[in-house]
From TrEMBL:
Protein name: Leucine-rich repeat-containing protein 19
Entry keyword Lipid metabolism: no
Chain segments annotated as transmembrane: 270-291
Keywords, comma-separated and alphabetical: Glycoprotein, Leucine-rich repeat, Membrane, Repeat, Signal, Transmembrane, Transmembrane helix
Job description of the protein: Pathogen-recognition receptor which mediates the activation of TRAF2- and TRAF6 NF-kappa-B signaling pathways and induces the expression of pro-inflammatory cytokines. In kidney, prevents infection by uropathogenic bacteria by inducing the production of cytokines, chemokines and antimicrobial substances. In gut, involved in host-microbiota interactions, plays a critical role in promoting the recruitment of immune cells and intestinal inflammation.
Location(s), subcellular: Membrane
Annotated Polar residues bias: 318-334
GO biological process: host-mediated modulation of intestinal microbiota composition; positive regulation of canonical NF-kappaB signal transduction; positive regulation of non-canonical NF-kappaB signal transduction; regulation of cytokine production; regulation of inflammatory response; toll-like receptor signaling pathway
Lipid bilayer topology: Single-pass type I membrane protein
Length: 370
């Protein structure tokens, strides 16, 4: 029994020693590569590094640097102070799940994408001081569930919406050109009602408007109209566009209906007019064809008679014209008869009995018979 208890005690002591040794070894893995004039994060650093200091270099934190950083998954602290970083892209630190401190102060950061801090679930301290940040999306900080300190001093931020950081204890905001209008009222209420401590509160001053430059952002007095307008501004902003949209939609639909009716009426009138014109033209054409067909038919039938022989035609012509030297043989009504005969030769008269008159009957014979 004694040996069993001694063995258990010895095992517990050995486990405690091993855990202490592992913790000491973990805190001791540190790499200091400051002022090395690096333009890229070196890839030959031990993969067991836990604290990596790359300050005062020329690192831009581009895609290549991001890939190298993913290999240092045991990092708990990362320092990139005074480098050449201008953008924090999405998933720049996604594989650093053990990171607790991230310091990127004194760079030229002006853009932070919304998913730049994805994967940093254990991050407790974030330093973004002395950059060129103008605006921050509050959703950028959503992945930072355990963030305790946020340092944003020395940027170009004039407005900052309330971040969804429930464990935040300290925030540093001085050195920014704060616009202390009604839009900053939510931030002031959050600073007053939450447990967050505004570091350097006395020097976190308003820059706009001029009459409020002597106040800090937490104690600036707001007019009663800010309290009355600001909460309802959202509903007002929603109501006005909705009303304008509904009115414009109604007017547009009414105009469309009017235009469509006018267009349809014009279209129908043109179609009706074209139909009438076509009907009139077709009717006139049919009537003209009906009138002309019998005349053409009779005209064709008039050429169905027997043509005279050449010598018969000459004989008929001589007998018709007569001898011009013997005027005594020609009656007094010669001119009138000649005109009648000439008209008969050059026209076709249709008899009522349906037969065609022969134009080559000898007129002298007819006179003698008469």
């Amino acid at each position: 029994m004694k040996t069993m208890s001694i063995t258990i005690l010895f095992w517990l002591l050995s486990m405690l020693l091993l855990s202490d040794k592992s913790q000491t070894s973990k805190t001791e893995v540190k790499c200091n590569s400051t002022a090395k004039n690096y333009s890229l994060i070196p890839a030959n650093i031990s993969k067991n590094v836990t604290i990596l200091d790359l300050s005062y270099n020329q690192i831009t934190l581009n895609i290549t640097d991001t890939r190298v950083l993913q290999t240092y998954f045991l990092l708990s602290e990362l320092y990139l102070v005074e480098n050449k970083v201008t953008n924090l892209f999405n998933n720049s630190f996604s594989n650093l799940s053990n990171l607790e401190i991230l310091n990127i102060c004194r760079n030229s950061i002006h853009t932070i994408q919304q998913s730049a801090f994805t994967g940093l679930h254990k991050l407790k301290k974030l330093y973004l001081c002395q950059n060129k940040i103008v605006q921050l999306n509050p959703k950028t900080f959503l992945p930072l569930k355990n963030l305790i300190l946020l340092n944003l001093h020395g940027n170009l931020i004039s407005y900052f919406d309330v971040p969804q950081l429930f464990h935040l204890e300290f925030i540093i905001l001085y050195g920014n050109p704060w616009n202390c209008s009604c839009s900053l009222l939510n931030l002031q209420n959050w600073l007053k009602t939450s447990n967050v401590t505004l570091e350097n509160e006395s020097i976190t001053m308003c820059s706009y408007p001029d009459i409020l430059k002597c106040y800090n952002i937490k104690t600036v007095p707001y007019k009663a109209e800010c309290y009355s307008k600001f909460p309802s501004s959202i509903t007002e902003d929603l109501h006005i566009p909705f009303q304008s949209i509904s009115n414009s939609t109604f007017n547009n639909s009414l105009n469309n209906l009017t235009r469509n009716s006018e267009h349809e009426s014009h279209g129908k009138s043109w179609a009706f007019l074209v139909g009438v014109v076509v009907a009139v033209v077709m009717t006139s054409l049919l009537i003209s064809i009906a009138i002309k067909c019998p005349v053409w038919y009779n005209f064709l039938l008039s050429y169905n008679h027997h043509r005279l022989e050449e010598h018969e035609a000459e004989t008929y012509e001589d007998s018709f014209t007569g001898n011009p030297s013997s005027p005594s043989q020609i009656p007094d009504t010669n001119s009138e008869e000649t005109t009648v005969i000439f008209d008969q030769l050059h026209s076709f008269v249709v008899d009522d009995d349906g037969f065609i008159e022969d134009k080559y009957i000898d007129t002298h014979e007819l006179r003698e018979e008469n």
